Fold D-aminoacyl-tRNA deacylase.
Amino acid sequence: MIAVVFSRDPVAKAVAKALGLTDLLTAGLSTRRVGDLIYVAHGGDSTELWSNWEEQLAGMGVEHVVVLSRHEMARPRPMVTAHTPGVGELSVAYAELKSWLLREACAERPEGYDCSAEATHHEPDSRKLSVTFLEVGSTEAEWGDERAARALARAVAELPSFKPSGAATAMAVGDLHYSMLTGPILEGRLDVGHIIRKDVATPELAAKAFYKHINKPSRVVFFKKSFKAPLRGEILSALQKLGVEIDIKS
């Protein structure tokens, strides 16, 4: 089962309005089951889930969590993004669901909005449940844009019909924050889970990310030029020990 999480985040509020769920937004924690989805609202920010959120959602039968959130960036531009969160221990990635959500939302995005899969970043970390952030950026103008909210609302409304695309699944190491694999994802040629940025990648983090997927990736895309020796060789050696196909981008 999939849970969709709303918060006091402006994008979450805008999507709730588009879905007719404004009454769900309260100062505390509230839940509502609609068919095969559970809508959850809490009074915190999008990255500040309540203390026992994973245990509570798992107790409801939830396996996958989708969080609606604003997106911010240093050089703002209108965007729809999706990513797996995680710092330190990382959240569990669901490559197929994340990629599907990005395709669904981007298919309905307003004119002038870019689309991108983002690298893994910010809290929360999860132990068992997959977590995907679906976001609109990058200023207050876009956060309150009803057209962008409707694009995300459509993707959320279609979640009961979600099925894995059958595309190859992958993880990326050494990628940019705004992934160079966005094109293959949007074209349906690739479903991508964790994307480890070049500035944070280590052999240990790459191995940890590989094992934190609902389904282990069938390949790892390794951006070789992102690293200098000896780190390049150390990360590549760690990836080779995983026994997975390595697609080296030179």
Observations:
- Helices lie at 10-18, 53-59, 95-107, 140-143, 146-157, 182-186, 203-211, 231-240.
- Residues 2-161 form a domain with the Aminopeptidase fold (CATH 3.40.630.50).
- The chain has a mean pLDDT of 96.
